[in-house]
User: What shape does this take?
Amino acid sequence: QVQLEESGGGLAQAGGSLRLSCAASGSIFSIDVMGWYRQAPGKQRELVATVTSGGTTTYTDSVKGRFTISSDSAKNTVYLQMNSLKPEDTAVYYCNAGGVKYQSGSGIRLRDYWGQGTQVSVSS
Assistant: This one.
């Protein structure tokens, strides 16, 4: 099986910074894309940023220039550096690993995984 472990959430003041980390563990052969999504109270989950195995990154418009996504493929880990935080960044942030090829008891499988979520709260 594959597990995603997130860390780095917490409380920050507006204008401050936080860094999220997400490590995928298990018998993993490859991961096509890793990313971060967020869900604020009463809102739908939205994409924040993604990075492919080839290094291509995408960002939602509201975080461009403030957030930076990066990855360490050798460690199957993705990071999200969040600078110039705003109160509207407050949400539960979820890590996603897409196209995970892994060894299961019944052979090689391919599927997506989600982390359990980490709270990010930004005070004004």
